[in-house]
Amino acid sequence: MALTYELIKKDKHTNARVGVIHTAHGDIPTPIFMPVGTLGTVKTMTPEDLEEIGAKIILGNTYHLYLKPGMDIMKKAGGLHKFMNWDKPILTDSGGFQVFSLSDNRKITEEGVTFRSHIDGSKHLFTPEKSISIQNDIHSDIMMSFDECVDARADYNYVENSMKRTLRWAKRGLDYHKENSHPDQSLFGIVQGGMFKDLREISARETTAMDFDGYSIGGLSVGETKEEMIDILNFTTPFLPENKPRYNMGVGTPDYLFESFQAGIDMADCVLPTRIARNGTALTSHGRLVVKNAGFKEDFTPLDHECDCYTCRNYSRAYIRHLMNVNEILGARLLTYHNLYFLLKLCENIRQAIMEDRFLEYKEEFYSKYGY
Amino acid sequence: MALTYELIKKDKHTNARVGVIHTAHGDIPTPIFMPVGTLGTVKTMTPEDLEEIGAKIILGNTYHLYLKPGMDIMKKAGGLHKFMNWDKPILTDSGGFQVFSLSDNRKITEEGVTFRSHIDGSKHLFTPEKSISIQNDIHSDIMMSFDECVDARADYNYVENSMKRTLRWAKRGLDYHKENSHPDQSLFGIVQGGMFKDLREISARETTAMDFDGYSIGGLSVGETKEEMIDILNFTTPFLPENKPRYNMGVGTPDYLFESFQAGIDMADCVLPTRIARNGTALTSHGRLVVKNAGFKEDFTPLDHECDCYTCRNYSRAYIRHLMNVNEILGARLLTYHNLYFLLKLCENIRQAIMEDRFLEYKEEFYSKYGY
């Protein structure tokens, strides 16, 4: 059975809301941050680590998994859940974002996108149908429609044409989905339209007119200012139906999460917390901490004094700084663990705040400490 | 209080023996393999992982820790146990082996060894006293005397002079130890003498005449054949007192462990299981498995069918091969976990076999499956 969304509580003062997404692989409390596991692993982490930090759903990347390990192996493994030993929900993107990022090595037609692999230069074609077919093989719980994510600075004509093609692709993907997906898989439509509100409105109205299981807002966090992001988000979200989950793609800093959830978004993802972890930076309740800096070499306090995660309960900044300084894998592992815990705990706190109608107070309190 | 060794059982048919080393940080059942944690971490593993796989004692490397994080930080951290959050026993080498490996960048005098750091070329002097002093700062449970480890092909005169200097250094280190070490730290003497039995005998007699808490056999696994190693080991070990632990340094393949334990050795260490793990190779009951090879890409069986470790219970060769193929840290982590578990389980099985006077049967059984 496809997912269902249960609305539990609306904030009295904002559009923020608490809910639960029910899936075949378990329930997802919302609003939620989703750790990214590009290649069938959230980098450095085991599934048990992910459960420990409170992850309820993770992402896989269709483009990357399609190239490696490839769908032959994925099918024989019985899908990504079994391949990577994760039995909670998995969401996959459509591959569109990665394919369009290969700017010099792809060609868009009505049929789809022809591109060359970043690994070996081999030629491939992704169509709306092919994208769903790959996501069928991955057997993700939540799939995305194949769309074009345009740059925030693209001109009106380009965005209009692209958005309309994305609508046609959405319909093709949905038709393919209805015929071919496993009954427990759900498909989201994606609203595009760049920075142009009239195009956003058309995209939102037409996408929601199709019967998707949830809706994503695409084309944000792609070069626009934070104010533009918030503006488009608050303009677009009200067009999305209340009885289905809403997903803002590619968002992972605390302020973008707050703003997204405040606008009524339920789900967000980003590689940021895991990527900056591997570069030696921690998210803390007092802002980012570049723990690999020499200034922390004799600091025997935890990464975040207010954090009760495994890393903060057991290791000092000095030790983690040492590990990063000598390129020890454990450093990346401890920081990844902490950063994901930090964001998932933040989501838990936000859910709690919404339940108590004090979302804005909590946001203000968090911002003043974090230094926004 | 320094360590004590308790002999529990001697094998009826070989010199193998089962015992327990009692230390301030806990008991170590012997014979035992000791994972190497060069820079204050057994690469990829947390202390909890190490406990899970049955590690009872780990190594730190004096030379590496002296350079990074350095002894200022080590002292302020309160020693390596606290710095890395490991509360079981730690053994440190003397730094001698690493310093002598810097063949073009070190100079030996009676006083000690002057060398240049492999990191920044800075000049340092290690003396027998300095080596103990660093190990005092690390606060390891078991320290090693500063010695020269000569190449297996060194000539008689060189080895004789070196061995005699090592004896003088042993005495100096022991004197320094008695005055300066923490009462819960123990110091081992190291028998040298290369491939020359008369020199091994002199070294063994004179080293054991000094009152060390245990004895290491150095200068093996440095270029000699396996037969030479076994020959020297069986010649030397009988000179070591029965009431103290015996340590064969730098040994970590299953056959070298069997041969060492058969000769009456209690402790061994090697980077091999962790290093080959990071290169994509597993130790299994049927020999080494280069799991990163393409041949395993559709093999959904565990690394080792007979292994019940976390990795083998949860992941396939195909998944681990994929992780190694795309340079995912989790691959190195899962393989490291398995390889160390494999060797520690092997030691447990060997202890059990000795208790039941069937060490040789177990050895033969293991060898026939492993393919030796």
UniProtKB/TrEMBL annotation, chains A, B:
Its cofactor is Zn(2+). Its EC number is 2.4.2.29. Residues 14-370 form the tRNA-guanine(15) transglycosylase-like domain. GO terms for biological process: tRNA queuosine(34) biosynthetic process. Binds 1 zinc ion per subunit. Residues 250-256, 274-278 are annotated as: RNA binding. Coiled coil: none annotated. Gene3D superfamilies: Queuine tRNA-ribosyltransferase-like. GO terms for molecular function: metal ion binding; tRNA-guanosine(34) queuine transglycosylase activity. It catalyses: 7-aminomethyl-7-carbaguanine + guanosine(34) in tRNA = 7-aminomethyl-7-carbaguanosine(34) in tRNA + guanine. The active site is at residues 93, 269. InterPro entries: ArchSynthase1/Queuine_TRR, TGT, TGT-like_sf, tRNA_ribo_trans-like. Keywords: Glycosyltransferase, Metal-binding, Queuosine biosynthesis, Transferase, tRNA processing, Zinc. Signal peptide: none annotated. One of its GO terms (cellular component) is cytosol. Substrate binds at residues 93-97, 147, 192, 219. Transmembrane segments: none annotated. NCBIfam families: Q_tRNA_tgt, tgt_general. Homodimer. Within each dimer, one monomer is responsible for RNA recognition and catalysis, while the other monomer binds to the replacement base PreQ1. Catalyzes the base-exchange of a guanine (G) residue with the queuine precursor 7-aminomethyl-7-deazaguanine (PreQ1) at position 34 (anticodon wobble position) in tRNAs with GU(N) anticodons (tRNA-Asp, -Asn, -His and -Tyr). Catalysis occurs through a double-displacement mechanism. The nucleophile active site attacks the C1' of nucleotide 34 to detach the guanine base from the RNA, forming a covalent enzyme-RNA intermediate. The proton acceptor active site deprotonates the incoming PreQ1, allowing a nucleophilic attack on the C1' of the ribose to form the product. Belongs to the queuine tRNA-ribosyltransferase family. This is Queuine tRNA-ribosyltransferase. The lineage of its organism: Bacteria, Bacillati, Bacillota, Tissierellia, Tissierellales. The gene is tgt.
